[in-house]
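Quick illustration, no need to memorize.
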Amino acid sequence: MSRSTSRKPTHPGAVFKADILVPLGLSVTSAAKAMGVSRKHLSLFVNGRASCGKELALRIATATGTSAISWLSMQNRYDVWEIEHSDDCDLKSICQLSEIATLEGISK
């Protein structure tokens, strides 16, 4: 896995807001009620402070005629970019397992 230098992916909550809520003129409260989620959770999601899990992805997909996989993929891209660009992620200390196996004479 190599660190990507491309721009940070858009959080799926921002996409939901820009592509669904704003064009339809819906409030977070009315959308949350229609989808059967709490207003607080949807607000956190729309503002990039909550992830799009499988349940929310399925509810959004059902309510918008999109696919759950598209929402989960957006979240996954966002999460991977975040961890790859995090100071907490020390990937330099990780060795390739195939190199270790070769050094130990385990490789076939």
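The radius of gyration is 19 Å.
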